Amino acid sequence: MIHILYTGSSSVCFEFDNTVPYCQDEEYTVRLEGRTVYTGTNNVFSIFGLQPDTSYDAEVITAEKTETVPFKTAAEACCVSIKEFGAYGDGVHEDTAVIQSAINMLPDGGRLYFPEGTYLTLPLTLRSHITIELGEGAVLLGSVERERYPIIPAIAGDMPFAGFEGIEQPCYQSLIHGCYVNDVAIVGQGRIDGNAQNGDWWKDFNSFPAKRPRAVFLNRCKNITLHGVTVANSASWHLHPYFSENIAFLDCFITAPKISPNTDAIDPESCKNVDIIGCKFSVGDDCIAVKSGKFDMAQKYKVPAEDHTIRNCLMEFGHGALTLGSELSAGIRNVTVTQCLFRATDRGLRIKTRRGRGKDSIINEVVFDNIRMEHVKTPIVINMWYNCVDPDAHSEYVWSRKALPVDERTPHMGHFAFRNMECIDAEAAACWIDGLPESPIEKVEFENIRIRFAENAEPAVPAMMEFAKPHCRTGLVFENVREIVLNNVSMKGHEGEPIQAKNYDELTVKEFDA
Length: 514
What we know:
Blueprint: E1 2-7, E2 12-16, E3 23-32, E4 35-42, E5 44-47, E6 55-61, E7 66-72, E8 78-81, E9 90-94, H1 96-105, E10 110-114, E11 117-121, E12 124-125, E13 130-134, E14 138-142, E15 151-152, E16 155-156, E17 159-160, E18 171-172, E19 176-179, E20 182-188, E21 191-193, E22 216-219, E23 222-227, E24 230-232, E25 239-242, E26 245-250, E27 253-255, E28 272-277, E29 280-282, E30 288-290, H2 295-301, E31 305-311, E32 314-316, E33 320-325, E34 332-343, E35 347-352, E36 363-374, E37 378-383, H3 396-399, E38 415-426, E39 429-434, E40 441-453, E41 474-492, E42 499-513
Parallel strand pairs: 8-10, 9-11, 10-13, 11-14, 12-19, 13-20, 14-21, 19-22, 20-23, 21-24, 22-25, 23-26, 24-27, 26-28, 27-29, 28-31, 29-32, 30-33, 31-34, 32-34, 33-35, 34-36, 35-37, 36-38, 37-39, 38-40, 39-41, 40-41, 41-42
Antiparallel strand pairs: 1-2, 2-5, 3-4, 3-6, 6-7, 15-18, 16-17
């Protein structure tokens, strides 16, 4: 069976109903009006170049059967080409003013179309009730003239406008910048390219007068969809929804060099109802990092991250495939991660916090299920000693192994269940789960987990914490966890004791093979 994830005026996104992570073994073909429009193996696929307000029948042809999926595209007020506004699209002449004028003038329900070409631009500001379509071969290319990027204040007239890494602070305006806008779609087979590799965004950025821009920043927005587009080479995080609701990233590709600093792919922060489905990631930092701010911001707004669905995604390279934290002071709840494929990331499922995040930084109702990992150095990490980002990250308060007093800044980690996972060619450790002595992790449960170490495994640091040492083929490591449950777990190729547990209350082992 196949269902529809999204239907716009010119594009549609489908998803197979199966249990295979990210892609199928056998190729299938999609035909529309007698012509082939897609061939591939991914569980999520899209069709572009459709007519608005039109009924279609898509034929999906697999080895077993042909399934017909009827759909109707959405109506729209109009479609205008950016070329009609006088855009050059040659990658040399700047098109900022033309593009912004077209966005401002487009009527509600209108679509602004970018044909093939390279549109050099400074930051652009979104408005509500429009669609921006980047056609195949169209590139929105960020200018490298940093001094011409406006700096957005954190607060102006008591209204919040900018923030980064869990703090309200001034930021350079992002390449695509949305504040308080609703009902926007950015679709197509084109590319949003921050062009950071050709400027100074990745060099000495701690000395800049403001925090770096994102490729797409959405502050307090609602009903926003990115479908099909490639987003690349951002100055910092690529896609940053911030205190926003009903956000969907469907069949997108987010990419940056492995060595690019802090180029997370998607970091939803204090958002509600976020869907990340059918996306591919290859970046220099975390592929997805779900956040809810640092202590002061969380105390001010008390807005958790909640109701996130991450499914049928491919995460490659980067520090973590799927991360919760480390800025999670308002808490994270109801996050489901299923049918994903992780390849060559430093860590797979990564949860990170530290002293100072606060008593409200509670994670609950999180599901990790049906995940395959290949060449992931440490598949599962829960780290309550994270030593990055904050000014006091390397202080004794963060790294002291003594049980410190529990107060309003003490974080808490609840129940985590990891189910139905196959991890091939791990290197550093099977898992590294390390709570605080004064605030142990409540419960960790492994069920139907298979871990195999690489024959040529090399040492690596499992978790980013002070005084961390490299490990190689280390087994299951638990410290400061109240309850540990291992049910139908197998591990091959490890060195030393398969289970290394300290400072726990209860350890239950059922069907463990090592």
